[in-house]
Design a protein that fits this description.
41% of the residues lie in helices and 21% in strands. It is of the alpha/beta class. Helix 4 (80-92) packs across helix 5 (103-116), helix 6 (131-140) packs across helix 7 (150-158) and helix 19 (541-548) crosses helix 20 (552-560).
């Protein structure tokens, strides 16, 4: 009879490596699932109910699972190879970097750092509750990148830092499976773990939860939601804010296309400190307004400001933003206009929402209904489609009165006279050819991004390859650079991307044919570009249409012409 082993992978990039290991252990019946912390616990409990003999996971997820199942749980240990790979990759990103984790991670990391003389600092924790306060402290002291496990990664991203995951390689997974095989021979009896059931008493009709001093949930009641609507990331940030403010915090969050208002309060009862979190469901279904979106994602890409041009622009934009002046951002598609607005909002807004109005779809009759008291930054797209210029000008003046910062974003050239009575400051975003010094930072980030997302092999790129990229043609600017790195990373089996690797790539697959662009008719050029975008988007017509700024029906018609 085969031994039933179930692996709970705390991150997605581990799955392909597990699949690669399965054929190497014919005596084991190996299954796997994806989930970290509480989600991982549910997957583990389900696997136990289906007859798993031994569970394998990693870090905090493994520790959580041990408390909730009766069968043996193995904690997958990181190997020296794992440390060297991950720390070398993190060092390549050239950011002030800290390693945060339990001693089983940091002790090995320190040894590698000392051996390779890497410019990294190590911080050891003893409990998960220490992660968020420590990362906030590191952010305030200038750290830009945090290396660690899954919880460290998520908390870092929640605070606007680059989170870098130390991944387990093939050898670590194989070692765990070998240990599981040995353990099974000696451990046949199940471990008895007691599950503590909490009792909830409903005494009001609010959406409320209460957490004790150890961040343990001790009471909850929901009337507008079937269960706790807050994500782990929301709770980590609220807990940390309450630890710092010691009294009360208020946040506006997006939940299933609807805004919710969250208020956290600290209460002292007989020397014990409790946190009470109350959620009010906003009566305004914001996302039901076509053309209006509330951006809640935290910018994760690097700002890439090595070049003088982008540094100058950023300093100028920050000055304009702080002085509440209307900023007109112009530039070609893919020059990071949307990212810049998100980055500046995230850096300077200090709470409040970032709202985007697309006047191709937004009905101006709803302008007066926008909750400006909750919006900190507003971004306007396609203002040439606005049907009431005087009305829009009045709205923007009201935004300025209420200290709402304004970005107007344009690709085709905006005419300031379209908004009478308003002073606009124009910022022209440079192309990649005008900021070649930033290509190295962007390329290294995209290499790391696809390594984390898909488990690709490449972790570094040579100076010669960077030189090649600096002279490459990018019709869609950073979007094209990202797509090029993606194709190379997915098809490369080497740790280092060489110039020859890029030269061997069929550039015709990445850019429209030059002969068509130079000699073809307008219709032929248009069709060639549509085909190219379709291929770049893996033939997803919806994404291709969005990228081209047309609907699917128009896309289909133009392809058939």
């Amino acid at each position: 009879m085969k031994i039933n082993i179930h692996i709970v992978a705390p991150y997605e990039a581990m799955i392909p490596v597990i699949q690669e290991c399965i054929p190497l252990f014919p005596a084991l019946d190996i299954t796997y699932s994806l989930g970290d912390l509480e989600v991982g616990v549910r997957k583990a409990v389900d696997a136990e109910e289906k007859g798993a003999d031994i569970l394998i996971s990693r870090g905090g997820t493994a520790q959580f699972i041990k408390k909730n199942v009766r069968i043996p749980v193995l904690d997958m240990h990181l190997s020296g190879y794992d440390m060297i790979r991950s720390l070398s990759l993190a060092t390549n990103l050239e950011r002030k970097t800290a390693i945060v984790g339990f001693s089983n991670i940091t002790s090995g990391a320190q040894a590698v750092i000392d051996l390779l003389d890497l410019p990294l600092q190590v911080f050891t924790i003893s409990d998960l509750s220490e992660v968020a306060p420590l990362i906030l402290e590191l952010k305030n002291t200038g750290y830009e990148q945090i290396v660690g496990d899954v919880i460290t990664l998520k908390t870092s991203k929640a605070y606007g830092l680059k989170g870098f995951l130390i991944q387990s390689g093939k050898e670590s997974i194989m070692n765990s499976l070998e240990d599981a095989e040995i353990l099974y021979r000696y451990l046949q009896d199940n471990n008895n773990v007691t599950k503590v059931m909490e009792q909830y008493i409903v005494n009001n009709h609010q959406n409320l939860m209460m957490i004790d001093g150890q961040n343990k949930l001790i009471y909850e009641h929901w009337t507008d939601f079937p269960s706790n609507p807050l994500t782990k990331e929301h709770l980590y940030i609220l807990n940390t804010d309450l630890e710092i403010n010691q009294h009360k915090v208020t946040r506006n969050l997006m939940l299933d296309d609807r805004m919710i208002n969250v208020t956290g309060t600290c209460v002292q009862v007989e020397g014990q400190r409790y946190k009470v979190i109350v959620i009010d469901k906003n009566t305004m279904p914001l996302m039901e307004r076509r053309g209006l979106t509330i951006e809640t994602e935290i910018a994760s890409e690097p700002i890439a400001d090595t070049s003088v041009s982008i540094k100058t622009i950023l300093n100028h934009i920050e000055t304009l933003y702080k002085s509440n002046q209307i900023i007109l951002l112009e530039g070609r598609k893919g020059t990071s206009k949307a990212f810049i607005t998100q980055y500046i909002h995230q850096k300077l807004a200090d709470g409040g929402m970032l709202a985007t109005l697309n006047f191709k779809e937004f009905d101006q009759d709803y302008l007066d209904q926008l909750p400006l008291g909750k919006i900190r930054t507003i971004k306007l797209l396609n203002t040439e489609f606005a049907d009431g210029r005087e009305r829009l000008s009045h709205f923007l003046k009201e935004c300025q009165k209420q200290q709402v910062r304004i970005f107007i974003v344009s690709e085709n050239g905006f005419v300031p006279e379209l908004l009478p009575g308003l002073k606009l400051t124009k910022i022209m975003m440079p192309t990649l050819s005008e900021r070649k010094e930033d290509i190295r930072t962007l390329a290294q980030y995209f290499i790391a991004y696809y390594n984390q997302k898909y488990g690709t092999t490449a972790v570094k790129i040579t100076n010669e390859a960077i030189g090649f990229l600096e002279n490459y043609s990018y019709p869609n600017e950073i979007d094209d650079l990202k797509n090029l790195i993606k194709q190379i990373a997915l098809n490369s089996q080497d740790y280092v991307i060489q110039k020859e690797t890029i030269e061997k790539a069929n550039t015709n697959e990445h850019l429209p044919a030059n002969d068509i662009l130079q000699k073809g008719t307008l219709k032929e050029i248009e069709k060639e570009i549509i085909k190219w975008v379709l291929k770049a988007e893996n033939h997803n017509q919806t994404k291709a249409a969005e990228r081209l700024g047309i609907n699917r029906a128009t896309l289909w018609r133009k392809l058939k012409e």
